[in-house]
Model the fold of this input.
Amino acid sequence: MGITESIVSIVLDKAKESNAKKVTEVNLEIGSLTQIVPDCIEFYFEIMTKDTIAKGAKLNIHTMPTKAKCLQCGNVFETPELDLTCPKCGNLFSQITSGKELAVTSIEVD
Ligand SMILES: [Zn+2]
Done:
C-alpha cells in the first residue's frame, strides 16, 4: 500500500508539472524481484486516486525481468530462478543488475 502511495504522489507531481487537468494513463516499470503484485497496485491506485485528477487513469504495468551480469566474462543474462551461474562461461559469481526497479516511466495527460 505504501508503494502505491508513492506512485500516486509521483504521478500527481508529474501531472502538476505539466499543468494537466486529467491523468489518462500511467506507465510503470516493476522489477520482478520486488515481488509487487500488479493487481494490488491497481486496486490501491483506484482507491487512492478517487478524489484526484488521476481518477480512472489506466495503469500500464511492465514487469522487468531479473537480470545478472557475469563478473568474469561480462555476459548479461536473465535469471528468473535467481540462479547466478553464468550460462556462457559457468562462472558462479554474477551480480544482479535489474529486477529491483520500481519507476513511473511516463504519464499521459489531458
Ligand atoms: Zn560468464
User: Anything to note?
Assistant: The pocket of zinc ion is lined by residues 70, 72-73, 75, 86, 88-89, 91 (CB under 6 Å).
